């Protein structure tokens, strides 16, 4: 992006003028709850941070004096590290709380944890929790902004936003795009957030999975559902693969990893069913040889997986920027 465009889109980083608000809410708890114009504004802002991150000087002082706490009750590599990097690049004081060594591991309730955090006076809390609704509960108990970094099987809004940013950078628009989300839909908060966001922005969304990995209420999502990869990928522009979330499963929902890859793993043959030039995405972590073949995951001509990681930092910087605009 030319420097002139960068300055025009993001005057907040260059001047002391009060920036225009982007989000109506002081929290980001899910895609359900934000509008299409808010999504577009976040994506536009994230583009400027993507440009900044590719430069020699990657830091701003926008969050100088602010405190960001990462509270992750579930293991994370990409999400936690990108929020940490985003906060530090914006000048915030960043604290990563280790749940394994905290009072939570000793039986402390989420409400008591909220009271402890409240006493620390954070400005932004990023939380990942195994229970749906945990982020919303904390948003009611704390005075700071809360960002949902994944709650149970509910939502993962920043993942959907970074996926949308990655798609827009390659396709320009969501209109007339067909996106196939394939794999373990039943246990995926990423799928739920992407379904909401992509549908809202005008894309046609398909779900492709064995029946055992589809939500029991899949009809309410309002998207096309396929149990056959060939039919589901036919004519698709974007193929988004999901991993098998074995940690959330009770009992065996697929015969074996080998059988799963045979029918639902993305290889060259199955990708050939999609539209010529179709692009492949995966939120990570990948199970190579289970839901995706290595030669596709590593093919720079079709795989957007590395760019998704890069855009994750940019979109999280944009979210922190947007939330900071409502702070006093």
Condensed summary:
This protein has 328 residues and is of the alpha/beta class.
Q: Roughly what is the average pLDDT, rounded to an integer?
A: 91
Give the helices and strands as they follow along the chain. Answer: HHEHEHEHEHEHEEHEHHEHH
Q: Let me know the largest β-sheet.
A: 5 strands, parallel
Roughly how much helix do the residues carry, as a percent range?
Answer: 25-40%
Number of strands: 9
Return the structural class. Answer: alpha/beta
Q: Note poorly predicted spans.
A: 6-12
Q: What percent of residues are in strands?
A: 5-15%
Q: Tally the helices: what do you get?
A: 12
Largest beta sheet: what is the strand line-up? 7-6-5-8-9
| Shape, per Cα inertia axes | globular
Amino- and carboxy-terminal Cα gap: 31 Å
**Rg over CA atoms:** 20 Å
Task: Describe this structure as you would to a colleague.
It is a single chain. By secondary structure, the chain is an alpha/beta fold. 38% of the residues lie in helices and 14% in strands. The strands form two sheets. A five-stranded parallel β-sheet has the order 7-6-5-8-9. Helix 2 crosses helix 6 and helix 6 (157-171) packs across helix 12. The chain is globular, with a radius of gyration of 20 Å. It starts with a helix and ends with a helix. Residues 6-12 have low confidence and may be disordered.
